[in-house]
Amino acid sequence: MLRRLTIRDFVIVDRLELEFEAGFGALTGETGAGKSILLDALGLALGGRADAGAVRTGCGKADIAAEFDLPLSSPLNEWLAGQDLAADDGAVILRRVVEAGGRSRAWLNGVPVTQGQLREAGDWLADIHGQHAHHALLKPDAQRALLDMHAGAAPLAAEVSARFHAWQRLVELRRAADHDSAASERERELLAWQIRELDELAFSTEEWGRINIEHARLAHAAGLIEGADEALATLGEGDLAIASQLRHVSVRVDGMAEIDSDLADVRDLVAGAAIQADEALHALRRYRERLDLDPQRLAEIERRIEDVMTLARKHRVAPDELPNLRADWARKLDDLVSRADPARLAEEEKRLHGEYEAAARRLSAARMPVAEALSRDITDAMQTLAMAGGKFEVALEACASPMAYGLESVEFRVAANPNQSLRPLAKVASGGELSRIGLAIQVITSRDSATPTLIFDEVDVGIGGRVAEIVGQLLRRLGQERQVLCVTHLPQVAAGADWQWSIAKVQRGSEVLSTVRVLDREARVEEIARMLGGVNITETTRRHAAEMLGAESSGG
């Protein structure tokens, strides 16, 4: 569960250090006070997308850190161990820094990580349900993804999609082979001729480097010979040759050092210089012996270079890219030869189709019982959310042909009132009904989640009265199983919480900042009375707020 959240210079927050408790916690306050900003900060620490707008005006960076306690049974422990990120005390600390220029950095348990690693860890730690999440439920893709995730079949759905696309690629290859056999034959012939042409050149990148070095030496042979002769004369010939002069000086200084030890370092330096001069002289003599004018060899190399350059210009590549070009041609030729074998293509297509169908049938088998259970559970929840007699169904309809998402379509259907027929959710649900159904779906699917912390950001928009009280009770029961945080404007929901914070804006000099206050029971009465009665809070409103808290404490 989430234990601590530290925020520095994020949007309108300067410094906050928040300690979280278990159970169901409510975050309340006036509109615009910064309630959702706290969740945005947490989302950033969990690996969400960052931009420069997250940094408080006038500051260089925003810094957010979130600390979680991790159950020993959490699958995240194995992932952390595999990444060498596990902490000795079992805690998980996520940190994110966003600079004013937009660049961001991330750490996990003090180790620098990528945003992707941070997000992967965050997915195990917390689920954030946004206030508009129920609108996504109107889309077929979102309905199908929710069912697959609830069934634990998301990896299988991804496998089905991959196998479908692999099968369809083979189908396209076979069709192309059937319709374009003549064009394919011409392309095969051209590729084979181009490959033979390169093979006849017998060229390699190693040879290219070698002949360019040799060409440079032969092309400049006269200058190299002249320079080598001059260097040899200076180093080793005549009474004033450098090597002999250094040997003479070395002998002289060696004798002096025998008398005065202060010259020992000078003796060693001069002796070293004499040895290096002799080594350079010997190496230069060997080089000069190999060096000769060879116009015939120079002409051979220039013809070779021209042959390579001509072929490289023809195919518009650099000379050293010719071997890679040949490898590409060879792969294309193998592909075309494979396409030209209808029996082989048909066999491969049949194999891939079989693999897709087997995976798709496993996906169908995983979806069916979960669709039935989800239909039943959400229908039951609707009876308590002012939709008595309503019904919900996750309908699985067989597709006319195989699809990337499987053998059946997934559609959420609802009958909001008794004696109504089930129709697609997108066509019949009003705004309030959609909010209630969406909340029921989120709460029910969250029960089976392994995520220890669930966060709801104003998901109760569009409901009120008795329904709001029931929602508070739902979240309170959910809070008995895991940590639940909820940003809410509804006093009935806030009254159902185990603990409550109030978020408000304060003026500090020229700045407007967001602050958080932990509420005791007396302060909770005042806050819920404010939520009930607005600006003018009466004693009657306070009694009502106290009764709501008392009822929730005794009946939750």
Number of helical runs? 20
Structural class: alpha/beta
Residue share in helix:
55-70%
Q: Tell the overall outline.
A: flat
Q: Compute the number of strand runs.
A: 15
Pfam family, one: SMC_N
Function: May be involved in recombinational repair of damaged DNA.
Organism: Aromatoleum buckelii
Keywords: ATP-binding, DNA damage, DNA repair, Nucleotide-binding
Task: Walk me through the structure.
The protein is of the alpha/beta class. It contains 20 helices and 15 strands. It has helices at 35-45, 76-82, 115-125, 133-136, 140-150, 154-179, 181-201, 205-219, 221-236, 242-259, 264-290, 295-314, 322-339, 342-384, 425-428, 431-447, 465-479, 491-495, 521-533, 539-555; strands at 2-10, 13-19, 24-28, 61-69, 91-99, 104-108, 111-113, 126-129, 391-403, 406-415, 423-424, 453-457, 483-487, 499-508, 511-518. The strands form three sheets. A six-stranded antiparallel sheet has the order 2-1-4-5-6-7, covered by helices on one side. A hairpin with a 2-residue loop joins strand 1 and strand 2. Helix 7 (181-201) packs antiparallel against helix 13, helix 8 (205-219) packs across helix 12 and helix 14 (342-384) crosses helix 16 (431-447). The longest helix has 43 residues, at 342-384.
